[in-house]
Design goal:
By secondary structure, the protein is of the alpha+beta class. The chain has three domains: 222 residues, no CATH class; 119 residues, no CATH class; 170 residues, no CATH class. Helices cover 32% and strands 24% of the residues. The chain is built from 19 helices and 23 strands. The strands form five sheets. Strands 1, 2, 3, 4, 7, 8, 9, 10, 11, 12, 13 and 14 form a twelve-stranded antiparallel sheet that branches. A four-stranded antiparallel sheet has the order 21-22-17-23. The protein has a three-stranded antiparallel sheet with strand order 18-19-20. The relative contact order is 0.07.
Length: 574
């Protein structure tokens, strides 16, 4: 192999080949593209019709041994049809026929097994390719319609695209992840056999080049056998030359398949080192998170204890907030579907704290790599409630300042439930399915970036002030937006309608205390998220004493004020 040319240039050349008409009809571009089975994606079936080109590929599995390979590649013949693998209809009883033989065939000493086939529906719906269920079930694939792919959770919960489908008016192509394919072939102890029938047409007459009007060439190597027919004796509609590439190639499996025996760390139990402190010279001390190598209450191994506190910047949480469909995150834990879960805590220093042994026991190696980026030298102590819970075995809850999001969600749900019990409907309407992430990922900003604060303000507004149940509020007070309120002025919006409702519950002084956090949130949203930032934002910050605060503190202040309002409203509903 010539390694003087970087692979990136070779890949570019393969996809940007400029050929003469002879090279074009000889399928040189296609042969270059398909002669390297180290690519990331492999076509397993295809039908593609262009103005001057047609491509068709189907594939099956064949027995993996030298004799089978030799027999299979002795010519360009297919031996199977495009429906191989589809069961035939029952016709009549015949005890000599084994119906299960439809899942395999034997020809010239080669065993064939289905992998892809083409289904036909009598022109009622469009014909389509299909991959055998055994492969899809082996990797537990599921179909994602919007992306036109099969995906699966692969090794330690990595969500991976296994099969891609390119379907449009002119093409139906299935591509499979090359690594996954070769792993599957290794499990089955088979080769992938691909059968190709491709055609090209040209407006150029190449009879002089052929020295005749028809020529057939054999193109073969250790992995393929093709017959290339080039002819000029069939001419129509300005087409002067044609070619056909008919044959097959094989893709070999890995020597050994991947093992899927259960282990949290499939990478041979790899563990990273994390910072546990500093020595007398100020140098960081690190310790492996391998749980089997740590001391415990029962065994002193001369190493760091399993329950040694380790600390991280809160930025590590952004990854989990970004994908709420995968991760369930709170101020107490992070959970990835049903693959792993780890207990966390947020300290007074605004650091994420976990125990060293929990990292190694609960997080796969790939996740440890993410965490280590944010690992910092221990600062401060674990929270009081965590010490009581984990070491004194006492029931202990965090203070509201330690877990404001938890308290907000709790008060929000309790208020909504109490309101419904009294009035038959929720005060805050339930979120749409595609908006629920606003509630599940609500968090104190972990950076001082305006982008993050804007996102959280918008989310907080959507689940509170934007979600007022105006219908039930109007029903309770007998007024709607546009009517005159108690102060004689028109009720101009949802907050004004909510104000009218609150005025029926409490006195004026307390009413202002309750409504202020809602007004603060709405004003912040209007001046920061909904419109361009301007002097209106400065006025809002100054009006509500948020000026000079960090973005984290701004959001926390609004949140705490809303919690207090929820509590007062609950008391008035009793």
């Amino acid at each position: 192999m010539d390694n003087r040319i970087p692979k990136i240039i070779k890949d570019y050349q393969k996809s940007n080949t400029k050929n003469s008409e002879i090279n074009n009809l000889s399928f040189n571009d296609w042969l270059i593209q398909n002669n390297d089975f180290q690519d990331d994606w492999v076509i397993i079936c295809q039908t593609k019709k262009l103005e001057f080109e047609d491509y068709f590929t189907i594939s099956c599995l064949i027995q993996a041994d030298d004799d089978s390979l030799k027999n299979f590649l002795s010519d360009s013949h297919w031996f199977i049809n495009t429906e191989f693998g589809i069961p035939e209809k029952y016709l009549e009883a015949n005890e000599e026929i084994d119906y299960n033989q439809i899942i395999k065939a034997e020809l010239n000493g080669v065993l064939y097994y289905p992998f892809t086939f083409r289904r036909h529906f009598n022109n009622y719906i469009q014909d389509k390719f299909q991959v055998i269920e055994h492969f899809l079930l082996y990797y537990n694939c599921f179909w994602v319609q919007k992306e036109m792919v099969y995906k699966a959770f692969y090794r330690n919960g990595e969500l991976k695209t296994i099969v891609k489908c390119l379907i449009n008016e002119n093409e139906e192509t299935y591509l499979i992840d090359a690594h996954v394919l070769k792993d599957y072939l290794s499990v089955r102890k088979v080769y992938l056999a691909r059968f190709h029938d491709h055609r090209k047409r040209s407006k150029v007459d190449i009879t002089d080049f052929l020295n005749s009007n028809f020529q057939t060439y054999e193109l073969k190597n250790d992995n393929s056998f093709f017959d290339l027919d080039i002819r000029t004796d069939i001419q129509y509609d300005k087409i002067k030359s044609m070619s056909r590439l008919l044959g097959k190639d094989i893709i070999k499996p890995y020597e050994n398949p991947e093992s899927y025996s259960w282990s949290l760390q499939n990478e041979e139990n790899e563990y990273l080192d994390f910072i546990i402190g500093r020595n007398e010279n100020g140098k960081e001390i690190k310790q492996s998170c391998d749980p089997d190598g740590l001391s415990s209450y029962f065994v002193d191994k001369g190493t760091t204890h399993f329950l040694t506190p380790i600390y991280f910047k809160r930025e590590l949480l952004q990854k989990y907030y970004a994908e709420p469909r995968k991760y369930n995150i709170s101020e107490h834990s992070i959970e990835y579907l049903n693959f792993w879960r780890i207990e966390i805590d947020i300290t007074k220093e605004k650091l994420v704290q976990v125990y060293l042994g929990d990292i190694g026991r609960n997080l796969p190696f790939s996740e440890q790599l993410h965490w280590r980026q944010f690992n910092v030298t221990p600062k401060g102590k674990i929270s009081n409630h965590r010490y009581k819970r984990d070491f004194l075995v006492e029931f202990a809850s965090p203070e509201i300042e330690e877990a404001p999001i938890t308290y907000f969600k709790q008060e929000y749900k309790e208020l909504n439930a109490q309101f419904k019990l009294l009035h038959g409907s929720y005060l805050f309407k339930e979120l749409a399915k595609d908006d629920y992430h606003l509630f599940s990922t609500l968090h104190i900003p972990v950076t001082n970036e305006w982008k993050e604060l804007d996102e959280q303000i918008l989310g907080l507004a959507k689940i509170s002030t934007d979600s007022f149940n105006l219908k039930i509020l109007s029903s309770i007070i007998g007024k709607k937006i546009g009517d005159k309120g108690k102060n004689g002025k028109s009720i101009k919006g949802s907050l004004a309608l909510f104000y009218e409702y609150l005025s029926s519950l409490t006195n004026v002084e307390e009413l202002e205390v309750i409504i202020t956090p809602f007004n603060m949130l709405q004003a912040f949203r209007s001046s920061s998220v909904a419109h361009r930032k301007s002097k209106a934002l400065e006025k809002t910050l100054k009006r509500y004493n948020l000026e000079g605060l960090s973005n984290e503190k701004k959001f926390e202040t609004i949140l705490m004020e809303l919690i207090n309002s929820f509590k007062v409203i609950k008391e008035r509903l009793e």
